[in-house]
Design brief:
- The structure is a single chain.
- About 2% of the residues have low confidence.
- The protein has 247 residues and is mostly helical.
- Helix 1 packs antiparallel against helix 5 and helix 8 packs antiparallel against helix 9.
- It is built from 9 helices and no strands.
């Protein structure tokens, strides 16, 4: 495959994430420095690779030499509810650490709504790599198939990652106001983000190839998108500067 074609496919894979990132960037009352958003986005990409590798290792436990190490996960089968739940948890955890590694102790992280913006940015970085992989997988089927798949992922899986991360980001944000409960709030946010992510994936795999998959996932995404919009507005009204919590 020529280099120019590879570059074009990578760019196409990044487009859905960039579009959603620009949308949510405008939600911030005081837009964050673009160099920090870029760092978080890139960390989301890096950790997405690790998350994908980790998930692959769990599925290949039976074929690996270190069976004793991964035996607790030997029951996991691809597309099983157990794997989908575990996979959703792993992805949400990695996205949180993309923000924790880069931004939580940075002076620019100075208002609660930043938590949602940076978490969404990490989620979209994560989604970008998934989209790139899908683009390369669908290329042999023709350009129209690739574009149709990207459009579906733009309003589906890419938005899913942004919303799930935004949900966790809200709980990270309100930990500014209740710092003595910040661990409980983070755990709650992680659980809710995981359950949302898991439910979306269950709809996809349970109704694969059926119109119900589109109906149920669309309804779910619209509901959570409305919730995220409300949460953004709540944080705007509660805007204040407080010391960064120790996380």
């Amino acid at each position: 495959m020529p280099i120019y074609q590879i570059v074009l496919l990578v760019i196409l894979g990044f487009v859905p994430s960039i579009v959603w990132l620009n949308f949510y960037y405008r939600e911030d009352c005081h837009p964050e420095p673009k160099h920090l958003l870029t760092k978080v986005f890139l960390m989301g990409i890096i950790l997405s690779v690790l998350a994908i590798a980790f998930q692959w290792l769990l599925l290949k436990c039976d074929a690996l030499a270190f069976k004793n190490l991964c035996s607790p996960f030997g029951f996991l089968q691809q597309a099983s509810p157990e794997f989908l739940l575990w996979s959703a948890f792993v992805e949400e955890m990695f996205k949180f650490y993309a923000v924790r590694f880069i931004i939580l102790q940075d002076p620019e992280f100075d208002e609660p709504i930043d938590a949602m913006i940076y978490m969404i940015t990490a989620g979209l970085g994560f989604a970008a790599i998934e989209n790139v992989l899908v683009v390369f997988q669908t290329t042999p089927d023709g350009f129209s198939v690739t574009m149709n798949t990207l459009i579906l992922r733009f309003i589906g899986a890419t938005l899913l990652h942004a919303l799930a991360s935004g949900l966790l980001g809200y709980f990270l944000a309100i930990s500014w106001f209740f710092q003595h409960h910040h661990k409980k709030l983070l755990i709650t946010g992680l659980i809710l983000a995981t359950l949302f992510h898991f439910t979306f994936n269950m709809f996809i795999f349970s109704f694969e190839g059926q119109i119900y998959a589109l109906i149920y996932t669309t309804a779910l995404l619209l509901g959570i998108a409305f919730l995220i919009s409300v949460l953004f507005d709540r944080l705007k009204y509660r805007h204040t500067s407080v010391p960064t919590p120790s996380i």
